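Progress report, Aim 2. The chain analyzed during this reporting quarter is listed below.
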Amino acid sequence: MMASLPPNPPHLVKFEPSGAPSQEYFLPSEKLIAGNPRQCVWEHYVDRSGKFFAGLWSSEVGKWRIAYTEEEYCQILHGSSIITDADGNALTVSAGDSLVVPRGFVGTWEVLLPTRKIYVIYEPGSSTSLGEPGRA
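Predicted structure tokens for the chain:
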């Protein structure tokens, strides 16, 4: 007996500039430290479980508090940011840099020059899209 195919078989997803609708937002005031940066997400992929996401994120200049409940891989496409942990250890990232932010990371994200990144997120406790990738 042959197994039936799922209704929507998996397919490759290419990150095209017009391949995903943009979602603009501002961070809640309790997270803000400096500025009020407009941020934008282009969510290119969400798996069937709603726990794995990939797309593009951008932010204007500003600084805010972050607390990760997800695991996130980032590749910085342009701009410059400083990510600082709760102990004051800072990492400056700019175009071409890649990093992983582990679940449980607490600190700040400061955008020095408007920044755009590719994000790949696994959120074990989630079942819907994040809307605010990386909380950053």
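Residues 22-135 form a domain with the Jelly Rolls fold (CATH 2.60.120.10). The chain has a mean pLDDT of 89. These observations will guide the mutagenesis work planned for the next reporting period.
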